């Protein structure tokens, strides 16, 4: 399998962590989708990463679809429950974490996208997205409480998604003081960073 992505993308990192936890072999191909000479559309018509290209050339895209597929490839380290409320809980955690990343990325693009003049940027839009980020962090903290992991006592996709969101915020928004406001989230991220799958994929 070939994974097309960028080391700075939290969605790509989520897939890479799942692959490491599942002990799956793959080739990582870095792609800058913002470059004029990007070829991502030949694999993903939406022009986004991550994109997983199968051995037969078929492409699977959207990180949620990819990680769900990967979890079926090996019984090692099952990350998503197969059915019922437990499955819905893990997928909801993933949706929450992805939503925080979605909002943060929209805020960053509005503030930094090179093809937009400063006069065209909307601070109101940025503020709206950052409210979503803070509300998402608050919900994460409340949901985690004093549990060792987001969905019980074992690592799951819930923790991987949340860890990727928190790691990306530290990378791109160091001014957001979420660690002091939500110390249980900081404790979770520190614990996750002890795992090689997280340490080896720190955004850069």
UniProtKB/TrEMBL annotation:
Gene3D superfamilies: 1.20.1050.10, Glutaredoxin (3.40.30.10). Pfam families: GST_C_2 (PF13410), GST_N_3 (PF13417). SUPFAM superfamilies: GST C-terminal domain-like, Thioredoxin-like. InterPro entries: Glutathione-S-Trfase_C-like, Glutathione-S-Trfase_C_sf, Glutathione_S-Trfase, Glutathione_S-Trfase_N, Thioredoxin-like_sf. Residues 83-204 form the GST C-terminal domain. Residues 1-78 form the GST N-terminal domain. PANTHER family: MALEYLACETOACETATE ISOMERASE (PTHR42673). This is Glutathione S-transferase N-terminal domain-containing protein. The lineage of its organism: Bacteria, Pseudomonadati, Pseudomonadota, Betaproteobacteria, Burkholderiales.
